[in-house]
């Protein structure tokens, strides 16, 4: 997959298409946050916080928040 290949820009674009068609897809929201994190780009903390409510991977989302903002 694009994530496994670390093709962050392409993966981000793909996940954004999924979100446009299915705004409640928690996996894609999580992966968008992951792409921004891996690209070391700052995104709105509130967007990352929202992952905690919609992602099926809440512990991964918490870890991502911690790594980005608490170190």
Output the keywords:
71 residues; mainly alpha; single chain
Mean pLDDT: 77
Please report the distance between the alpha carbons of the first and last residues: 29 Å
Question: Helical amount among residues, as a percent range?
Answer: 55-70%
Strand content: under 5%
Write down the secondary-structure element order.
HHHH
- Structural class by helix and strand composition: mainly alpha
* Extended strand count: 0
Low-confidence blocks of residues: none
Number of helical runs? 4
- Our Rg estimate from Cα atoms comes to 11 Å
From the spread of the alpha carbons, the general shape counts as: globular
Largest sheet: none
Characterization of this structure:
Helix 2 packs antiparallel against helix 3 (45-54) and helix 2 runs parallel beside helix 4 (58-69). The model has no long low-confidence stretch (mean pLDDT 77). It is built from 4 helices and no strands. The protein has helices at residues 8-21, 26-38, 45-54, 58-69. It is mostly helical and 71 residues long.
Furnish the topology, listing elements before pairings:
Layout: H1 8-21, H2 26-38, H3 45-54, H4 58-69
Helix pairs in contact: 1-2, 2-3, 2-4, 3-4
Short description, anyone?
With 71 residues, this protein is mostly helical. The protein has helices at residues 8-21, 26-38, 45-54, 58-69.
């Amino acid at each position: 997959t694009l994530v496994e290949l670390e093709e962050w820009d392409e993966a981000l674009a793909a996940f954004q298409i999924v979100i446009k068609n299915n705004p409640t897809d928690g996996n894609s929201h999580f992966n968008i946050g992951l792409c921004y994190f891996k690209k070391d780009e700052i995104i709105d903390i509130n967007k990352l916080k929202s992952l905690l409510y919609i992602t099926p991977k809440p512990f991964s989302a918490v870890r991502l928040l911690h790594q980005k903002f608490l170190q």
